[in-house]
Amino acid sequence: MNQENISIFDGLNSAQKEAVENVSGPSLIIAGAGSGKTRVLTCKIAKILQEGYPAESVLALTFTNKASREMKERIAAIVGYPTARKLWMGTFHSVFIKFLREESELLGFPKSFTIYDTSDSRSVIKNCIKELQLDDKIYKPNEVQSRISLAKNNLVTAQAYAASGAIQQNDAASKKPRIHEIYRLYSKKCRDAAAMDFDDILLYTNILFRDFPEALERIGGRFNFILVDEYQDTNYAQYLIIKKLADRHGNITVVGDDSQSIYAFRGARIENILNFKKDYPKAAEYRLERNYRSTRTIVNAANSLIAKNSMRLKKECFSEEETGNKIELLNAFTEQEEGLLVANAIFNCVYKERAPYSSFAILYRTNAQSRTMEEALRKRNIPYKIFAGHSFYERAEVKDMLAYLKYVQNGKDDESFRRIVNFPARGIGATTLEKLAGLARKTGLCYGDVIKRENLEEAGIKGATAQKLKKFIADIEYIGGRLPHVTAYEAACMVDERFAIIANMRTDTSLEGQGRLENVAELFNSIKEFVEEGEAEYESLAADGYEVPLMTLDMYLENVSLISDLDTNEGEEDKNKVSLMTVHSSKGLEFDYVYIVGMEENLFPSSSGFASEEEIEEERRLFYVALTRARKEVKLSFARSRMRWGSHVNNPPSRFIKEIDSCYILNPIPDFKSQIFTEHTYAQPQRFSAPPVQRIARSVRTNPAFKADSPDKVAAGQLVEHSVFGTGRVISVEGDPLSRKAIVDFDECGRKTLLLKFAKIRILQ
User: Which of 17, 18, 21, 38 is catalytic?
Assistant: First the structure.
């Protein structure tokens, strides 16, 4: 091995070295959780470059900007930054946007087309539903958006959607027969506005490669190597693009873990990784099975679980870390007690292990479960943060400012126009917008062109208002004409100066108003940082004769539009807090201590009684992902009674608990099927020892025709029976008829406060 290879292979295990060494031909790298897949991918790219291939001939695709950035930094440390920066490396969307901008004229789009984020897209769909005079309670924008997204990910255009008898039959069966009309109108509005949504980026890249082979030749001809991270998460559209690009040379490496394929609801196809060797029969296969993250107990427990899946590639992960603690079950009577058990366990661990709060994560199947966890953490004064994606960019005032920037960049973007035309207030109301919309539909022009070309007064828009609109568009166009010559930050400052946005916001001296002002100031900071970081990145190349590009507004907007859930930076105030998130959001993250809550049938797995085997296997993979986020310790919690839609429901513990080999569980459930009716025998923190339920269960079982009395009959002093908590005496009743609450002292469960319109209570005495 020569000297230049030492830095690449140093520290790799034998399986990792084999995967890195082979740079030619197709390769499938099956990478278990915590097996160092990012390092392998990084080293393989560095090996390709050290073999003498130009960096421009390497295309590496990831799912997050964060992953792409980390890989590029690691490669730069090995081969040097000037070489690393020439790599085609980024997320699927960020790379494919570059292809589309190069060839946009073939598709009938300008190079400066706008990218609609999820909320922009939903807003346009709402307008389509309104324009078609459909009931938005039947045609719910979120649901329509999901259907259109799924269609695009399967390369079904609006025309194909309308022409498909099977799709129309399915929509009719769900009492939404006009979705095809919404899809067609939505597509037209996007094209008229020179805008694409996220799904369009994949759809139009496929159309480009299908309909214009010369474009495929121009783009595909530049790449000799293609490497794909998280291949198990690719959808059909991504799969086809990758395959077409790789058909020229066959030098394709995909890295992934079929056991972590959890995004079927977004169109991801586990078949892509399962069938890789069918697509490439001569593909080399490498298994990265050593887990560097978790204890042996956690890895072995996860293995015993995922072995129950039939759709999987052969792999047996192992750990050489310490054995570690067994998995503990926290058995709660109610969801409130579950929250207290979890909070108390975290508090005790922080005190005992001197562990920072940031080393803890609470994972749940649905976002709704966070409420009781938050309440319990607050009672214990435990700081926490909820992972909620790029919420900063979803704040109204931030979106308002971004809409200004989008509109000066693309004057056809009617969605941005509607958002900003009366911000700050300039006396342009809903009636004026309706008249403008009518003119736009009649003439086929965008709002900006309507204002410039049409006689607004004839359309019923008063002269003073018409002048305001014309001045607004003139100011927008003035700034738009300056964009090629100024940085993104200078453009933002020009917008603010011309439209007095910050000056108007300063007039709101309320606490909320000042908060909104601070958010806009932070947005300006982000634009400034983007420009400075970009200039610093290219500055080092100027000495080598490379042209340093201007960090323009279009570059900033593209960067912001592609920020994903895991790409946001934490502020200092968020550093030392317990993390709360869905299991889906946790993928790619790791924590010392992981609490997986709500481990009950019909919650995790969700709707198990109606799920197909494929859906159960996806849920099992999701639980596998949750388990393998932990480095040191896992606790699983479940509640015997949980409030769902205003009623108490009783679901048995999740089947997934039983599927873990009991030797890895500290306090296994003795009789899984009947445990909900058995004496409580599981280890619990002493402070929150769970009550026995034998008497309660007997009460429920011996009264199969349990019938609750009317809430208005319940009074203080009565002996009552609850459908779940058993017998007790009413201490007090208060509140109006719609919100009457009773405090009941139950024999077995202690004192509970019940909302009587939901609680099922029978009066005994």
Answer: 38
